Amino acid sequence: MLKPLVSIVMGSDSDLDIMKGAADVLEELGIAYEAVIISAHRTPEDARDYSKGAETRGVKVIIAGAGGAAHLPGVIAAYTLLPVIGVPIKTPTLKGVDSLYSIVQMPSGIPVGTMAIDGAKNAGIFAAEILSLGSSEIADKLSQYRSVMAGQVSEKSKRLVEKGFEEYKK
Ligand code: RP5
Prior knowledge:
The chain folds into 2 domains: 6-134, Rossmann fold (3-Layer(aba) Sandwich); 141-170. It has 6 helices and 5 strands. The chain has helices spanning 16-28, 44-54, 72-79, 97-104, 120-132, 136-169, and strands at 6-10, 33-37, 61-67, 84-89, 113-114.
């Protein structure tokens, strides 16, 4: 098995469905990852140990998703020099604005690259973009990924022009 280059960390198994978006895109791009559940509040020692050990184990980028008082990405960033990408998870009470503010408002000196609320897919792509700086193989895959996406948009536009609003929806 390939050594994971990306680590996907989430605060709870209730984050799984969203964080799978990162895993799916990394798989599509052929990038090895590992996924774990670690909580900044419920398992703080694990958060510290995992973050401290990640670089030595060969991980290059950490994606961390959490909701509510979402301190996990910031705590991880405090313990490692690896780039940390934060994913604010949507919450039932405050719709993820709580998570977003908790993650994005890092103190000067310890950055977390913050994605949109529930933006795990973009976190995966962003991690791949970081890795592509040192890998032409990943850069090629990303370029191909964008071409496919552009092709799909063009197809949709062609269909809209041909069919009009009502027919397009059917
Ligand atoms: C955060 O609290 C987790 O990241 C999750 O988004 C949220 C709720 O966790 P559970 O109570 O569902 O385990 O730490």
